[in-house]
Amino acid sequence: FSTDIKTVEVYPTTALELTTSVKPANGSNDSNEYDPHQHRNVKNPTSNWQTFAHFLKASVGTGVLAMPSAFSHAGYINGTILTLIIGLLALYCLHILISCMYTLCKQQKVPYVSFSEAMNLGLKQGPPWLRCLAPIAIPFVDGFLAFYHFGICCVYVVFIAESIKQLVDEYLVEWDVRIHMCIIIVPLMLIYSIRNLKLLAPFSSAANLLLLVGFGIILYYIFDDLPPLSERKAFVAFTELPTFFGTVLFALEAVGVILAIEENMEKPRAFVRPCGIMNGGMSIVLGLYVLLGFFGYWKYGEEALGSVTLNIPQSEIPAQVVKIFFAITTWISYALQGYVTAHILWGKYLVKHIKDPKKHTLFEMLFRAIIVLLTFGCAIAIPDLSVFLSLVGSFCLSILGLIFPALLQICVQYSQGYGPYRIKLIINILLLCFGVFGGVVGTYVSILDIIAVYS
Fold first, then answer.
1. 265 pairs with which residues across the strands?
2. CB atoms < 10 A from the CB of 322, how many?
3. How far is residue 41's CA from residue 258's CA, in Å, rounded to a whole number?
4. CA gyration radius, the chain
5. Backbone phi, psi, residue 253, to 5°
């Protein structure tokens, strides 16, 4: 009987149970002795290599193809330095977010708390003037994460359909892009029916190999007959930097997927080690972004387009192969990005309304099919959805990826202090300012893009 009671304490069924720290009967606080990682019970956990494959696939999306264009709005020296700064800030925010979630797990003596639950708990123990925000933290964070990743899936439908259309138009027959969207519904439903990250891992590994080959082909074209570097700008006017910031921040942030893959790990401690998965993965990602941005700008200069694949010769076979590879990798990314939406909406809000556990799988598959149909419907209804998603994404990502992690650490460290000279408080205030700046800049850039599209 006592074992059952411990099980309930360790594995809470709702976020409402996570309200106050559990204190032992003798009155001492032994939260430091509780290790959440040792009590995490994950169904179908992923190994370190599988998690690493997911991290790379989640962090290297179609946004990397816009890096040469982004560098044209910064210059090759500015672009290199600022890309590294933005990437390291994003990495630091992920570290403090996961660290605060771990601290809250130790306080509550539970194996895991989600991002939204962590914000709720943190705000409750933070500065008094922030505690009024605690009740709205869970729906606010969950809503933004689910909505944003749903929007990414909508854009992926458009990207895949347009890539296929370009190939079919070249070699077979010209069809409207919406016909191609209809054709890819079944493949999207098939990949999205994979409900756990362990089974998705081989797909992510295959996608990473295709990305590697695709980037190799792009770099082959880029390195062919490079012009003198003196023809390119090392720095640009300050007024052009907002476009650069908006593009890079949007391309680098994948906080929802990264938290999901960390939650599903067999050995989560390996994720945040100094030489662990997150640091190693982000080093590769930043290196790839700088490589493609620097040399892509060196090759094409101000003529660099929104996707570097549009700059390479369109009629040549290697260029067509690149389009096929990126369509396949985006198809796989659809399942990875959509996992966040299904995990939040189904796992936290809908499954509890299905009383019969035997029907959970059936209803979850139906729910996932509905999500695919909704993304298909949005893609058809708003062909220029990507510019609207950039607007929402700039707002969401600056809040979820920069502002909330800094705010969470301010709250979690409130009772313990912020270290010598309040250094942690100062750093987090600076992060809050940068997050607000990033959100304003991204919103400004996105509004300009919308005006340009519809003018």
1. 46
2. 24
3. 19
4. 23
5. -80, 125
Helix (H) or strand (E) holding 144: helix 134-171
Going by C-alpha positions, the residue among 389, 406, 399 that lies closest to residue 440 is 399
The answer to whether the CB of 278 falls within 8 A of the CB of 271 is yes
Q: Which helix (H) or strand (E) holds 250?
A: helix 241-252
Cα dihedral 161, 162, 163, 169 sign: positive
DSSP state of 27: S
Phi-psi region of 329 (alpha: psi -120 to 50; beta: other; left: phi over 0): alpha
Q: What pTM value is reported for the model? A: 0.86
d(CA 204, CA 55): 9
Closest to 308 in 3D by CA, of 222, 369, 183, 397: 222
| Pair 370, 182: CB distance under 8 Å | no
Mean of per-residue pLDDT scores for the chain:
86
CA distance 59 to 147: 18
Q: Using the structure block, give the residue that is written with the tokens 């990126």.
A: 326
User: Are residues 121 and 15 in contact, defined by beta-carbon separation less than 8 angstroms?
Assistant: no
Please state, as a whole number, how many other Cβ atoms lie within 10 Å of the Cβ of residue 238: 8
Please state, in angstroms and rounded to a whole number, the distance separating the CA atoms of residues 377 and 373.
6
pLDDT digits (tens, 9 = 90+) for 111-166: 999 999 999 999 999 999 999 999 999 999 999 899 889 988 988 898 899 889 88
Task: List Cβ neighbours of 4 (8 Å cut-off, separation of 6 or more).
Answer: none
Exposed / middle / buried, residue 153 (Cβ in 10 Å: 0-12, 13-18, 19+): buried
Q: How far apart are CA 365 and CA 448, in angstroms?
A: 39
8-state DSSP, 265: B
Burial call 290-299: b when 16+ CB within 10 Å, e when fewer: bbbbbbbbbb
Q: Are 302 and 27 in contact (CB under 8 A)?
A: no
Question: Residue with structure tokens 């942030």?
Answer: 253
The token pair at 318 is 């290697």
* Ramachandran quadrant class, 27 (left: phi over 0; alpha: psi -120 to 50; beta: rest): left
Q: Is 298 in contact with 229 (CB distance < 8 Å)?
A: yes
Q: What percent of the chain has pLDDT over 70?
A: 91
Q: Tens digits of per-residue pLDDT, 64-80?
A: 888 998 898 889 999 99
Residue 46 has a pLDDT of 93
What are the backbone dihedrals phi and psi of residue 227, each rounded to the nearest 5 degrees, phi first? -75, 170
* Lookup: tokens for 113: 């708390």
How far is the CA of 222 from the CAs of 226, 251, 289, in angstroms? Answer: 7, 21, 14
